[in-house]
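A.,

Following up on our hallway conversation. Structure tokens first:
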């Protein structure tokens, strides 16, 4: 069975940054790219907040740069999905695409998280053209415009109040008659003048055409009366939570109640020596490319020290 010194699962900013550091430290990293090579950023259009790109860059191009930089130092990037892992003993046995197996001395988990979507057709059609799941990433493009946010939890409250600072009007669609967000966040929402909450409202359609900047409007429906309203808006933000991609590690690694991996604070260490986590898979708070890249670097350095201690 093939032996791999440093196996990195996931190919977003965390995975590739770990690979850059690991490759330069002669740790022979192999990156298994996963279902969405390049990660969540490949579904974004422009990235303007990643340092080093003063003119901005598209998400897919940026991830090509990350990949090229990792490969420049010898990273072996491979297509495929990790379909099973056995963390009970080292080297760790890892199954790829349900057929082949490798043995890994150390593993860096950078499988990320996936934004939850409503599941309506318009969302897919207009993703990146006015539809987004990240206000911090894309809110800037709607400065001085009107936007709609969907969700009733802390993420929605936070994104809506963040957008209210940039946008003219924000409408928050909450499907129940109350929000799930913490009382403090709800208070902040209610005290924001240009933020209007529509309870018992769901999204019927997002209106506009791909290719243009922003959408035109959102049709919402009152789920008690079936009444429809048309809300003029350029941006549509889905903020109904994220799902960390951790099902592979269930019953093997510690997770919080939402499934995020628990790591030793200030490190990338999971409870199993030799297994490290980086990026959104262990972070439901910041979720930025730059913070993911930072923790990817930490994971490679932690793995390097771990391997050195084994010698
Ligand atoms: P949550 O699961 O807490 O909330 C999701 C919200 O989206 C709920 O209001 C839910 O409605 C709504 N929703 C789900 N599906 C749909 C749908 N199809 N259509 C319309 N609405 C829908 O997710 P969050 O991301 O908000 O929070 C996740 C965790 O992270 C929480 O523990 C939260 O406290 C934490 N967090 C903390 C922050 C902070 O402390 N600063 C910031 C952000 C998150 P319903 O209530 O009807 O189910």
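Then the amino acids I'd put at each of the 311 positions:
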């Amino acid at each position: 069975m093939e032996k791999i010194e440093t196996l990195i699962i996931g190919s977003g900013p965390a995975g590739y940054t770990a690979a850059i550091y690991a490759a330069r430290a002669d740790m022979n990293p192999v990156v298994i790219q996963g279902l969405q090579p390049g990660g969540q950023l490949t579904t974004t259009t422009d990235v303007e907040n990643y340092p080093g790109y003063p003119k901005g860059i598209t998400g897919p191009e940026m991830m090509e740069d990350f990949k090229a930089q990792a490969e420049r130092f010898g990273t072996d990037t491979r297509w495929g999905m990790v379909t099973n892992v056995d963390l009970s003993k080292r080297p760790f046995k890892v199954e790829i695409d349900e057929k082949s197996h490798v043995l890994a001395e150390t593993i860096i988990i950078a499988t990320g998280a996936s934004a939850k979507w409503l599941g309506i057709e318009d969302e897919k059609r207009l993703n990146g053209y006015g539809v987004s799941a990240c206000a911090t990433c894309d809110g800037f493009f709607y400065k001085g415009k009107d936007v709609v946010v969907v969700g009733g939890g802390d993420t929605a409250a936070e994104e809506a109040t963040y957008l209210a600072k940039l946008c003219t009007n924000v409408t928050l669609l909450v499907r129940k008659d109350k929000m799930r967000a913490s009382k403090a966040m709800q208070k902040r929402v209610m005290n924001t003048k240009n933020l209007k909450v529509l309870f018992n409202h769901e999204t019927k359609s997002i209106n506009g055409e791909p290719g243009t900047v922003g959408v035109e409007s959102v049709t919402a429906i009152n789920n008690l009366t079936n009444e429809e309203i048309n809300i003029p808006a350029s941006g549509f933000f889905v903020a109904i939570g994220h799902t960390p991609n951790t099902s592979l590690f269930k019953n093997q690694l510690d997770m919080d109640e939402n499934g995020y991996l628990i790591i030793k604070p200030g490190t990338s260490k999971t409870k199993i020596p030799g297994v490290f986590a980086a990026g959104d898979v262990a972070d439901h708070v910041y979720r930025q490319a730059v913070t993911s890249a930072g923790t990817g670097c930490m994971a490679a350095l932690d793995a390097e020290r771990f391997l050195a201690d084994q010698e």
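The two ends are 21 Å apart (CA to CA). Curious whether your intuition agrees with the design.

B.
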